[in-house]
C-alpha cells in the first residue's frame, strides 16, 4: 500500500516517464492474488526509482552572466506542489548544489532613477532590469550620477540596494 501512495508523486515529476509507468502500476493493481500483486510492485519499484533519479538530477551549471541577469527575478513555477518528491538526502544535496551556484550580490550600472508619487525610488539599470523600492528609507547624498548599484540578497527572499556606498533601501525586481 505504501508503494501506491508514493507512485503518483514520483510520476508527476516526469510526464514522459509517467505515461508508461502508470500503465505498469495499473497492471500491477489489477492482479487479483495478493502475493503476485506484491511481487509485481516490488519488480516495478527499481524502475520507478531510476525514473525518479533522472527527474531530480541537478541542473547543469549556469554561467555567471546568466546568473547576474536572472538575479532577483521571480521564480516561475517554484511551488512545493509541483516540485519533485525528494528524500532528505536528495533535498540536502540539491540545496548544497544550488547554494554553490548561486550569486549573492551583483553590481549594475544605473541608467536612470526616479521617485514616484509615494516617494519611493524606481531604478532602471543599463541591462534593462527595473527595481523598485519597497521600504520607506530615504537615500541622501547620492549626487547626480553616474551610479553603480550594488544589490545583495537579504533575509526572507528580499534584496537590498546601495548606490555608491550610501545607505541601503529594500527593493524588488519588477521585470
Backbone structural class = alpha+beta
Which consecutive residue ranges, at least 5 long each, have pLDDT under 50? 3-14
Number of structural units classed as domains = 2
The arrangement of helices and strands along the chain is HHHHHEEEEEE
Assess the beta-strand content as a share of residues: 15-25%
Largest sheet: 6 strands, antiparallel, barrel
Question: How would you describe the overall organization of this protein?
Answer:
This protein is of the alpha+beta class and 175 residues long. The chain has two domains: 2-55; 105-173. It is 39% helix and 21% strand. The chain has helices at residues 2-12, 15-29, 34-55, 64-70, 88-101; strands at residues 105-115, 121-125, 130-133, 147-153, 159-163, 169-173. It has a six-stranded antiparallel barrel with strand order 1-2-3-6-5-4. It is rod-shaped and about 80 Å long.
List keywords for this structure.
single chain, 175 residues, alpha+beta, 2 domains, 6-stranded antiparallel barrel, 5 helices, 6 strands, 39% helix, disordered N terminus
Amino acid at each position: 500500500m505504501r508503494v501506491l501512495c508514493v507512485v503518483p508523486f514520483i510520476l508527476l515529476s516526469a510526464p514522459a516517464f509517467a505515461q508508461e509507468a502508470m500503465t505498469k502500476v495499473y497492471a500491477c493493481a489489477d492482479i487479483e492474488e495478493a502475493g503476485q500483486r506484491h511481487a509485481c510492485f516490488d519488480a516495478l519499484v527499481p524502475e520507478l526509482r531510476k525514473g525518479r533519479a533522472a527527474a531530480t538530477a541537478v541542473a547543469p551549471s549556469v554561467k555567471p552572466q546568466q546568473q547576474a541577469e536572472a538575479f532577483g527575478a521571480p521564480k516561475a513555477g517554484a511551488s512545493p506542489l509541483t516540485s519533485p518528491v525528494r528524500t532528505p538526502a536528495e533535498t540536502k544535496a540539491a540545496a548544497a548544489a544550488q547554494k554553490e551556484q548561486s550569486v549573492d550580490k551583483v553590481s549594475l550600472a544605473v541608467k536612470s532613477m526616479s521617485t514616484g508619487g509615494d516617494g519611493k525610488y524606481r531604478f532602471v539599470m543599463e541591462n534593462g532590469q527595473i527595481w523598485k523600492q519597497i521600504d520607506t528609507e530615504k537615500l541622501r547624498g547620492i549626487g547626480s550620477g553616474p551610479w553603480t548599484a550594488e544589490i545583495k540578497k537579504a533575509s526572507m527572499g528580499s534584496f537590498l540596494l546601495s548606490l555608491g556606498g550610501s545607505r541601503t533601501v529594500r527593493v524588488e525586481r519588477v521585470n
